[in-house]
Amino acid sequence: MKWAIVVCAMVALSECLVQVPLEKGKTAREILEEQGLWEEYRLKFPYNPMVKFDNSFAVGTQSMTNDADLAYFGIISIGTPPQSFKVVFDTGSSNLWVPSVYCSSPACNNHDKFNPSLSSTYRQNGASLRIQYGTGSMIGFLGYDTVTVGGFAVQNQIFGLSTSEAPFMQYMRADGILGLAYPRLSASGATPVFDNMMKQGLVSQDLFSVYLSSNSNRGSVVTFGGIDPNHYSGSISWIPLSSELYWQITVDSVTVNGQVVACNGGCQAIVDTGTSLIVGPQSSISNINQVVGAYSQNGNDMVSCNNIGQMPDVTFHIQGQEFTLPSSAYIRQSYYGCHSGFGNGGSSLWILGDVFIRQYFSIFDRGQNRVGLARAA
């Protein structure tokens, strides 16, 4: 399996890290822009990142959002013999699901689909699954099979097989989602993949880590069961969770040039690999964008590409530590201009998405219910 990497620490050869490389492909936004469809799509299916974190969906129904900027996905396999799928490793949700042969939605027709009849280890569950998106839903049913993630073969893993999918999934490179949040969030009571990894003794430590490369389409990786020191520099700052549903932490403030521009007095933030931007309350995001020199254009927060080098750093203060983002980190350049990486979420909750994680290697520790952050190497 060329997509599975096993790294053994020199100090303890018995301790191996199982890693899944992540590919940074074209986003749905980039594909739609190339086809001249982005403005129509954006108006028809407005981006609503906070739908994903609506607590009313924490039991029974799982919410997700139509993030058109998601770029990172990895490969897993399901069944015997294995059927391969590209999935987003999403710390903001808890279910694993992929398209099935029973789905005829446009989103399924241009993605790989799981065929239960071709797997000798598949067992049907019979329960239904519905995952609500900002612009539609994924509807399907649950089944059990062997799910291979990197070098780990997770036995009897429950997962969703879609029979209908939201329109925006048609433009995403990934086939499905592998959720890595807490089991209390999981729709239909399905046990998350990482929980089964822990229960089946597949990981040496009850944690996983995410490294998102900034410089190329290669190098990004999810590591299960340990921490690869090659992916960070300096020390790790350990931050206790303020809630054990998502990977939620407390941020003390956000500053620019030493002045508080947002989150004055503290705020709650979720470290989320399944959201591309840094998202916050409308007033806070508007203030940050104004301070860094962004302006609104056709519903997008834009900056002059010529000014990126002169734009200020934005610093998140967490647990007494400073996590600073230079303009090169929070500005996305494309053929259509330069976009701010700070997005309006319409809620008091913040999301520290890929814009943040590319700068700070992130460790998700289930054993001690904490997040570790260190400067990405």
TrEMBL record:
<dbReference type="InterPro" id="IPR012848">
    <property type="entry name" value="Aspartic_peptidase_N"/>
</dbReference>
<keyword id="KW-1015">Disulfide bond</keyword>
<comment type="function">
    <text>Shows particularly broad specificity; although bonds involving phenylalanine and leucine are preferred, many others are also cleaved to some extent.</text>
</comment>
<feature type="disulfide bond">
    <location>
        <begin position="103"/>
        <end position="108"/>
    </location>
</feature>
<dbReference type="InterPro" id="IPR001969">
    <property type="entry name" value="Aspartic_peptidase_AS"/>
</dbReference>
<protein>
    <recommendedName>
        <fullName>pepsin A</fullName>
        <ecNumber>3.4.23.1</ecNumber>
    </recommendedName>
</protein>
<comment type="similarity">
    <text>Belongs to the peptidase A1 family.</text>
</comment>
<feature type="active site">
    <location>
        <position position="90"/>
    </location>
</feature>
<keyword id="KW-0064">Aspartyl protease</keyword>
<dbReference type="Pfam" id="PF00026">
    <property type="entry name" value="Asp"/>
</dbReference>
<feature type="disulfide bond">
    <location>
        <begin position="263"/>
        <end position="267"/>
    </location>
</feature>
<dbReference type="GO" id="GO:0006508">
    <property type="term" value="P:proteolysis"/>
</dbReference>
<feature type="signal peptide">
    <location>
        <begin position="1"/>
        <end position="16"/>
    </location>
</feature>
<dbReference type="GO" id="GO:0007586">
    <property type="term" value="P:digestion"/>
</dbReference>
<keyword id="KW-0645">Protease</keyword>
<dbReference type="Pfam" id="PF07966">
    <property type="entry name" value="A1_Propeptide"/>
</dbReference>
<dbReference type="InterPro" id="IPR001461">
    <property type="entry name" value="Aspartic_peptidase_A1"/>
</dbReference>
<keyword id="KW-0222">Digestion</keyword>
<keyword id="KW-0378">Hydrolase</keyword>
<feature type="disulfide bond">
    <location>
        <begin position="305"/>
        <end position="338"/>
    </location>
</feature>
<keyword id="KW-0732">Signal</keyword>
<feature type="active site">
    <location>
        <position position="272"/>
    </location>
</feature>
<dbReference type="InterPro" id="IPR021109">
    <property type="entry name" value="Peptidase_aspartic_dom_sf"/>
</dbReference>
<dbReference type="GO" id="GO:0004190">
    <property type="term" value="F:aspartic-type endopeptidase activity"/>
</dbReference>
<feature type="domain" description="Peptidase A1">
    <location>
        <begin position="72"/>
        <end position="374"/>
    </location>
</feature>
<dbReference type="InterPro" id="IPR033121">
    <property type="entry name" value="PEPTIDASE_A1"/>
</dbReference>
